[in-house]
From TrEMBL:
This is Methyltransferase type 11. It comes from Natronorubrum bangense JCM 10635. Coiled coil: none annotated. SUPFAM superfamilies: S-adenosyl-L-methionine-dependent methyltransferases (SSF53335). One of its GO terms (biological process) is methylation. Keywords: Methyltransferase, Transferase. InterPro entries: Methyltransf_11, SAM-dependent_MTases_sf. Residues 49-139 form the Methyltransferase type domain. GO terms for molecular function: S-adenosylmethionine-dependent methyltransferase activity.
Amino acid sequence: MKGQEWYQADDVAEEYDDKRFSRGGQLIDRREKKAVLEAIMPIEGQNILEIACGTGRFTVMLAEHGADVVGLDISAAMLQQGRTKAQNKTLEGTLEFLRGDAGRLPFPDDHFDTVIAMRFFHLADDPEAFLEEMRRVSRDQIVFDTFNRFSARSIYNWALPMGSRLYSKSEVSVLLAKTNLTLIDVEDDFIAPYGLYRAIPNKLASPIRTLDKTIGKLPVSDHLASVSYWNTRVR
């Protein structure tokens, strides 16, 4: 997977949430969490795995809503941030953080109701193999996001420390067919790139976001959106 060493650095983990989800990045955080919650409702009582859970943004949120959640990540530093975050929350479900490789998940077949992977596939060197492994341990649902090839994301993609894999809709459709997953829904969002939101204060980012969502309602916007949220079922 791309960027393994970079993500495992202590200083990167400590600054990760602040750099990405403060300022205008709060709007990104809010939208991503909304996408996950809407895809897997009702949450209470579900057994959920998040791979590449990072600092636990989604794992903690899901446990707060009553799910029994395992967050898996290759970075011990990221996992420690997640454990610290969970200490200050009231959890209705259970939460476990586990260090491991998303390409070799340490769970039996059909072990979880739902598997999610957010901010992961742009780093995957073999997306089909990773998706197949996710399918193996899920008995019902897989939710993930991808960054889109024909979008503003491509403008600054070269500046990322480990690069980024961008996908076309047709490429993801082929991946779903190869791994025997049925598409339930896909949502596209963020015409303006993530980097713009992160670079400016929230009060300036909010009107841009309003304009972004307005443009996003137009049919042509599906081909310009930076990110797609995929909700799939195991056949």
